[in-house]
Write a structure and sequence with these properties.
Elements (H helix, E strand, L loop, with lengths): L1 E4 L3 H4 L5 H4 L4 H16 L6 E6 L7 H14 L4 E5 L7 H4 L8 H5 L5 H4 L1 E2 L5 E4 L8 H5 L2 H10 L5 E5 L8 H6 L4 E7 L5 H13 L4 E7 L1
Parallel strand pairs: 1-8, 2-6, 2-7, 3-5, 3-6, 7-8
Antiparallel strand pairs: 4-5
């Protein structure tokens, strides 16, 4: 399944959360199409976890994850969006949230899951920011606590979306990928090289991840 989202720079300059700020825009409609395609590609009766990644950094995966989460929440789905990019987090900036307590605090036992959750203006969307950047992100993301967090989250949410690090640069994303029901790969037309996209696909397959779609940003 290939999912295509075209970007319009005139709107994007007004802020990253287009799906929230401009719900009637063409871009917002494309996010709705993406979330519908994801829904049709999996068992609709099962609660799901999805990982959003890209071959390299700077290809728009965090903005995509944020807008996809908003779009899903607008369709009456209860969504938890987690910033698992523990090296270069950005969801706290996109949503204008504090980042003093987040995922790293839950994984190290310094905070409960409920205390790390931020409720957003999109009624059915909650966000867990990264927390402070740790010295051992690989160990945290591969820990039993991370698995337990995902299992526990699905008791309260219909969908858990995870914004991760780019897949070709570090081990972090591969460790998370096979813990999720599906992986969505974001590539940018004119920036992502075709061999990098193919390499990312092979890496995810080697990690036994379920690659359910590709979003091509134009």
């Amino acid at each position: 399944m290939v999912l295509i989202k075209k970007r319009q720079s005139r709107i994007n300059r007004r802020g990253p959360l287009i799906a929230y700020s401009y719900p009637e825009s063409i871009i917002s409609e494309q996010y709705r199409m993406i979330q519908a395609n994801i829904k049709f590609s999996v068992d609709d009766n099962k609660k799901q976890t999805y990982l959003i990644t890209s071959p390299n950094k700077g290809e728009g995966k965090s903005t995509t994850a944020a807008n996809l989460a908003v779009s899903m929440a607008q369709q009456k789905t209860k969504v938890l969006l987690i910033d698992a990019n523990l090296r270069n987090p950005s969801l706290h900036i996109i949503f204008n949230l504090p980042n003093s307590i987040g995922l790293t605090d839950v994984l190290t036992g310094r905070s409960s899951l409920s205390n790390a959750v931020h409720h957003t203006d999109v009624g059915r969307l909650d966000v867990i920011t990264s927390g402070l950047i740790p010295i051992n992100p690989v160990e945290l993301l591969s820990s039993m606590m991370m698995n337990e967090l995902l299992v526990s989250s699905l008791k309260s949410y219909d969908v858990v979306l995870i914004d991760s690090h780019s897949v070709l640069e570090l081990t972090d994303t591969k460790l998370l990928a096979n813990q999720c029901d599906g992986v969505v790969l974001v590539i940018q037309s004119g920036k992502t090289l075709s061999d990098e996209a193919l390499q990312a696909k092979k890496v995810l397959e080697f990690a036994k991840a379920n690659l359910i779609g590709v979003i091509i940003q134009e």
